[in-house]
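Entry:
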Amino acid sequence: MNYLVFGATGNIGARVTQRLIEAGSRPSVFVRNAMKAQSLFGDRVDIRRGDLDTPSPSLAAALDGVDGIFLLTDGPNLPDQDRAISSAALQAGVRHIVKLSTLDVLTGIGTGPWHAAGEVAVRDSGVPFTFIRAAGFMSNALSWSHPIRNEGILHSSTGEGRIAFIHPDDIAAVAATVLIAREHDNQTVVITGPEALTYKEMVTTISEAIGTSIDFREISDQQAYADAVEWGGEGPYVDALVDIWRAVRQGRLDTVTEGVRRIIGREPLSFTQWVAENATSFA
């Protein structure tokens, strides 16, 4: 099988690519920055350059000879990108698309509507698919590192709500397994971390790991929005984040599933382990 990975230089895509390499494959990667891909993977991948924001013949060329795709797209233009890729994949004879989606598709929260439309585009293309609807990534907590390091505090509008963040390695393991095994064609897989935790509980775990007291303070949606605009600017992505934090507070994102164990045969990795791996980011 010949695989093509979209988003291969990012947090999840790089891990999926590495797992495909370790499984004996020589995947192709569709990237804007060939030098970055080269630095990550050396000569173990075939680099196919292109830009999904400006569709061009590069997409058709990248799909030539490809059997399976790992599809990771983001942002409000995600549905258009998924449509362009899946349509080109059909024409190229691709046999399987594994799309990383989000658990929020079920609730219409945050980026859920973007991914819901992306799923429709992939499904309508006629190419066999697998949708992986994942909970929020544990690596999202890296955005807390600056206030924790510099102020010893985390402000959040999530209150006492819980969410089962998932380790990026678990997402990559599930994606690679689904791509290689082809046992979940035309199915949706829902994956989460092992337990739903409050943000305060997660901050306590970080505090214990670095040996420093961290204060957790609840703020309003309005303040959360203002804080997010400071570093992210106004726009649909910040709107989506505030929507997600509100949903956490309301208890709408506390789902825990056995998806990881069912697909790869082991329990999902804990937030405690993720913190141990990334403690230096907070110290």
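The longest strand covers residues 96-102.
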